[in-house]
Design brief:
- The complex is a heterodimer of chains A (248) and B (258).
- Chain A is of the alpha/beta class and 248 residues long.
- Helix content of chain A is 32%, strand content 25%.
- The longest helix of chain A has 18 residues, at 169-186.
- The radius of gyration of chain B is 21 Å and the shape is globular.
- In chain B, helix 2 packs parallel to helix 6 (138-176), helix 6 (138-176) crosses helix 8 and helix 8 packs antiparallel against helix 9.
- The longest helix of chain B is centred in the middle third of the chain and has 39 residues, at 86-124.
- Chain B contains nine helices and no strands.
- Chain B has one domain (45-253).
- Classes of the chains: A alpha/beta (248), B mainly alpha (258).
- At the A-B interface, helix 2 and strand 6 of A face helix 5 of B.
Chain lengths: 248, 258
């Protein structure tokens, strides 16, 4: 389980997180929704130590995030970045097998490539993609390679940062289905941040809405439409009028 | 008046803070250099990029500089019947000063800019964050192999540049200025001392570290977007060039001030 307890983070005078408190149960898929610039990515990055909170505590299975052996801690996570964040100097298979070619999980290159090709197949990409460079792939293919890299070492916890941003509706649907299948199949705990409501409905077990630096509402996805929270209601229906200012 | 002094003070403080940040970054690099893991493949790739692929530009720079130096010394020396010192001055000039400094500046232009732009782009596109999530320390994976490759390859490039520069001077002197080939070479060899060569190689090592370190530092600390990448690239080359010239002055003082 991941627990955020009164987490604060400011960048200069911009107080992004103002006391985020949230529980992400083990084995569940939690989707955090909220407008652009509300700190969704910052919250994820705080768990991984990419951003250090100013105050508050983040616990992963009861232990402070990042405490102890950092490599072992990070080995429990996989992450799909918004833009893919593929290493453009490496061929696709080396991107996917990056974690399997160095550190504690290191194995022979041939075996790592075999696993990479299997993971590529799992996300619907053919083996001939393996030797191409990321720049030779379309946006949707890069996203799928990023997904294959996130699951390559079979992590316990997977983070998805805006998984469908920039994709056409059909490709977005394919990615949503893949994420759902993989999370269920692996039994992983998942945290997704998005403002794509079709993603929310396809991926989430539970939903949390981040607004004004705090979690405004959290609950099962089935209860989202009847949450009774005016912020959630405005957001999920995409209304310009309501408590969330359209111009921020 | 107070406002002007305040502005100057703020600039001085900003420069000192930047020097401090670079010093801390250099210390971190050294710490990661001596602790595992070590990424051999990245190091070999950096050797290729920084060393081997820089050879053409280093060779061309050196050969033209050596040739021009021979012409200048001959023209200047002829005014007071000292044209015969061309081999000695070309050798001294290339090995002690022009070889290391010009190779250092060419490396700053070619390698520092390339490293800064590559790492800054990686930062902007979250590839650095991705490295961290894949349990790989960016300092170990990106900085250490490049700085180590700079330390190893730039002295070799300087050595090659020195030889090619002397060869350029030799070609001009023998073919255009009427020098005897054997005498020219003999004078060159007789006049150069081991300290000249050692100082050249030490300068090369120092310039290699400066050029690669500033590229990595600027890339890692770049701002956002295309403008951030451009600014990081520009500042890395400026800083590396100035630091190379300053280090050259200090090292020349250390080796030859007595």
């Amino acid at each position: 389980m991941i627990r955020f307890d009164d987490v604060h983070k400011a960048f200069g005078s911009n107080h992004v997180l103002r006391g985020v408190t949230l529980d992400v149960p083990k084995g569940e898929s939690m989707v955090i929704i909220g407008g652009s610039g509300t700190g969704k990515s910052v919250a994820l990055k705080c768990v991984l130590g990419l951003v250090v909170p100013d105050s508050g505590v983040i616990l992963v299975d009861g232990k402070p995030a990042g405490a102890g052996d950092r490599e072992a801690f990070l080995a429990r996570f996989g992450m799909l970045f918004q833009g893919g964040a593929l290493f453009d100097s490496l061929p696709v298979w080396q991107n996917v097998a990056f974690r399997l070619m160095r550190g504690a999980l290191k194995r022979p290159a041939a075996e790592a490539k075999e696993i990479a090709i299997e993971k590529l197949r799992r996300v619907g990409l053919s083996p001939d993609v393996a030797d191409r460079l990321p720049a030779e792939l379309s946006g949707g293919m890069q996203k799928r390679v990023g997904l294959a890299r996130a699951i390559a070492a079979e992590p316990e916890i997977i983070f998805f940062d805006e998984p469908t941003t920039g994709l056409d509706p059909i490709m977005a649907g394919v990615i949503n289905d893949l994420i759902r299948e993989i999370v269920v199949e692996m039994g992983a705990t998942a945290m997704t941040i998005t403002h794509d409501m079709s993603s929310v409905r396809a991926i989430a077990d539970r939903v949390a809405m981040l607004h004004g630096g705090v979690i405004r509402w959290t609950g099962p996805v089935a209860e989202m439409d009847g949450s009774g929270d005016p912020y959630v209601d405005q957001f999920i229906h995409g209304r310009a009028e309501g408590p969330i200012a359209a111009v921020r | 008046m107070l406002r002007v002094l305040g502005g100057i003070g703020a600039q001085v403080l900003a420069i000192l803070a930047a020097v401090g940040r670079v010093a801390i970054y250099a210390g971190d690099t050294l710490r990661h250099l001596v602790t595992p893991p070590f990424y051999g493949r990245e190091f070999l790739n950096a050797l290729l990029q920084i060393g081997w692929l820089s050879l053409p530009v280093v060779g061309l720079t050196a050969v033209f500089t050596g040739g021009a130096l021979a012409l200048q010394i001959y023209a200047g020396g002829s005014r007071f019947d000292a044209a015969a010192v061309v081999p000695q001055i070309v050798a001294i000039g290339m090995v002690r000063e022009l070889g290391p400094v010009l190779v250092g500046l060419m490396i700053a232009a070619r390698v520092t800019s390339s490293i800064a732009a590559e790492i800054a782009t990686m930062k902007v596109t979250e590839q650095i964050d991705a490295l961290v999530t894949l349990s790989t320390h960016p300092m170990k994976y990106l900085t250490v192999p490049r700085v180590l490759a700079g330390l190893v390859t730039v002295p070799l490039l300087v050595g090659v540049g020195d030889v090619i520069g002397i060869f350029g001077g030799y070609q001009v002197a023998v073919r255009s200025l009427g020098f005897n080939a054997a005498t020219y070479l003999q004078n060159t060899v007789d006049f150069l001392e081991p300290l000249d060569v050692i100082s050249s190689l030490v300068k090369g090592a120092a310039f290699g570290v400066i050029a690669t370190l500033m590229g990595c530092y600027s890339g890692m600390n770049s701002g956002r977007g295309a403008q951030g990448v451009g600014a990081a690239t520009k500042s890395s080359v400026e800083a590396a060039s100035v630091l190379i010239l300053a280090a050259n002055f200090l090292l020349t003082g250390v080796f030859f001030s007595a």
